[in-house]
């Protein structure tokens, strides 16, 4: 059976993006930087989480942020208040960051700072539950966020995001008492998709669960570099 032109183009785009992501990861490894890709729907709380993260850990680690939005630098400006480098990328009509965009962000970071001095780059992807999960950017780990206001069924309706996640943060848990929402149901749905994912309920407003998130993030930043496999003879 012959592929449609659209399918072939999609495969080629993903292949080219993956090659760029591999290059980004190799460059980050040379600099000794860990990279995390934060993904969620709009309004799940990525920027609020990053604000609390920078406030708590920017004195412990040398951190930078690549901030993706379709338009404006509103979120980037919120994060710049914490005196860390924030590279803003406007994607225009694109619903996700891709490896080429992030490569440009890393280049800008390396022009303005010594990249070897950083411990971690946090990528805040464009708010979308579908596209960001398909396009790697060179990250070492993926973090998905799901707010309690979105319901327990989203892992079943948008499985790729949750399959790909290394850590799932269930956000805005301070609102849970006011909603018809059940954590056990959400967890069961998530485990169907990804049995191994680290699941952490958090509230950026009250601080609940943030210490567990910070500890998980520390474990990623301190993760030892992996040896490059020897090429097959």
TrEMBL record:
One of its GO terms (biological process) is protein maturation. PANTHER family: HYDROGENASE MATURATION FACTOR HYPB (PTHR30134:SF2), HYDROGENASE PROTEIN ASSEMBLY PROTEIN, NICKEL CHAPERONE (PTHR30134). Belongs to the SIMIBI class G3E GTPase family. HypB/HupM subfamily. GO terms for molecular function: GTP binding; GTPase activity; nickel cation binding; zinc ion binding. Residues 38-199 form the CobW/HypB/UreG nucleotide-binding domain. InterPro entries: CobW/HypB/UreG_nucleotide-bd, Hyd_mat_HypB, P-loop_NTPase. It comes from the Bacteria. Keywords: GTP-binding, Hydrolase, Metal-binding, Nickel, Nucleotide-binding, Zinc. This is CobW/HypB/UreG nucleotide-binding domain-containing protein. CDD domains: HypB (cd05390). It comes from Prochlorothrix hollandica PCC 9006 = CALU 1027.
